[in-house]
Design a protein that fits this description.
81% helix, single chain, mainly alpha
């Protein structure tokens, strides 16, 4: 592949990620991607096997970027609780920054979209297993309470991630509800800011720690 075609391929993939994040698997079309990338529609046939090949590569690259950040964040800390905290921050910020994309993914999964299902089956267990390993490490060192793994994971997910998804739903409803729209700035500050995310994560960790010091 020439440098020019490699550059075009990456432009299409980056544009594809933008469309995927905005509209989900069901809203991704080659025409939208080509228009966004300012690339001739015919280039898809030259660079990719078909739309499914393109969609899979776009979704996988987006996921690998997230998963790499998750690993890097956890590996930056030797203390198991701090590693869990850092991974939680990476995950919570990703959910915040892509809350509409996650809502679209859930919609596509509920509708049985084949590419959404394939993506979810391949990837969602990966970060679930990674986070579970961090929790097990904390539990094995008696740094957190000896509760069932599912209890610990769902408790933290509910405290840290669910509010950002709820904010995404509020944002969708707000345009037709003036009172809700007026509340959005404060809601975003108190739910999705870095400060708010860190506060919820620290509260969640404090609830499961076996010692007062984090």
């Amino acid at each position: 592949m020439t440098m020019a075609s490699a550059s075009t391929e990456q432009r299409l993939i980056e544009a594809g990620k933008a469309v995927l994040f905005e509209e989900g698997f069901s809203g991704l079309t080659l025409r939208k991607v080509a228009s966004r990338a300012k690339v001739n529609l015919g280039m898809f046939a030259y660079l990719f096997k078909d739309k499914e090949d393109f969609t899979r590569r776009v979704a996988q690259q987006a996921y690998e970027e997230f998963y790499g950040s998750l690993q890097l964040g956890a590996q930056s800390q030797q203390d198991p609780v701090l590693a869990l905290r850092e991974a939680g921050l990476v995950l919570a910020r990703f959910v915040r920054d892509h809350r509409q994309a996650i809502t679209s993914l859930m919609r596509d999964l509920n509708a049985g979209h084949p590419e959404a299902l394939r993506f979810a089956r391949k990837n969602i267990p990966r970060h679930g297993i990674f986070l579970a390993a961090l929790v097990k490490r904390c539990r094995s060192q008696k740094r957190i309470k000896n509760l069932p793994l599912a209890t610990l994971l769902t408790f933290m997910a509910g405290a840290v991630l669910a509010p950002n998804q709820a904010l995404g739903l509020i944002e969708k409803m707000a345009p037709g509800m003036p009172m809700l729209k007026a509340m959005l700035p404060a809601a975003r500050r108190d739910i999705s800011s870095d400060k708010a995310i860190e506060a919820r994560l620290d509260l969640a960790l404090a609830a499961i720690l076996t010692e007062k010091k984090r």
